[in-house]
Amino acid sequence: MADPKQVARNHWFRNDDLPGVAGPERDLVGYGATPPRVRWKDGAKVAVNIVINYEEGSEKTFAMGDGMNDGMYELPFDVDDQRDLAKESMYEYGSRAGIWRMFRMADRLGVPLTVFGAAVALERNPAVAERIVERGDDLVSHGYRWIDHYEYSREEEREVIGLAMESFRSNWGLEPVGWYCREMSVNTRELLVEDGRFLYDSDYYGDDLPFWTKVAGKDHLVVPYSLVTNDCRYIMGTGFGSPSDFVDTAKRTLDQLLDDGDDCGRMMSIGIHPRITGNPARLNGLAEFVRYALDTPGATFMTRTDIARSFAEQVPAPS
Hints:
Layout: H1 4-10, E1 46-54, H2 85-109, E2 114-117, H3 119-124, H4 126-135, E3 138-141, H5 154-172, E4 178-179, H6 188-195, E5 200-201, E6 211-215, E7 218-222, H7 243-258, E8 266-272, H8 280-294, E9 299-301, H9 304-314
Parallel strand pairs: 1-2, 1-8, 1-9, 2-3, 4-5, 5-7
Antiparallel strand pairs: 6-7
């Protein structure tokens, strides 16, 4: 077997990607200096999208036969060879308490929500799914379970996508047109286009505006997401130490997008999790930013699917 380090050394002189590598081609250019001039609801320059990642109960656990405990936890402790009941209870906080606190905030402040929903998580807490339907929230498929899609074969991933969509349809009468998985594979986007039910995916972090791409000869929309204004930074690596850190980052993000040196509109994604931002202090910080954005001229709150459709109307697919 070839030594991977030697292979890497042999390619140090390349100035392009290898031909035939699986997955989408890299695009390092994007819109460049001339992004399209878009406007959102009520002529706003920045569309703010709040995304609840509802995954609790679908994460990897010994209880579900995965032989491991998921890693996103408040403290840097790992239990390797048995159930981690402490970690499981953190996730349960999200489904028992955190998600309801989020719904109450959104109701009180009158802002729309997008839910990246894992099908199994909603199956295991039907009351949450029923509330999403009742509120009319924007459901984006977060897969069947909260798993890394790159761990599965193309056929297995195709099956997982189908299982998720069938669950949403048969249990709740919902047919998402958007997709975001935990970690996409080189096959994910091709499978979504092959499936035919998806207007867009959000498995991308490389822009502040949606953009069209070509997959298997078909136009497909990408609506980027963000890991910057995202509450995973409370518990992973060097990130937010307090809700004030989140509020400051979110405010500065919005202020910059509103005055970004040109006349182009942009979008701002805020990613939150019931087990993380559902805790009182962090939800209080989110509410503080929402009030700030509501009082800021040029900003509006929209769902992700409304952003996708509005963009597609203003910037039609090339073909």
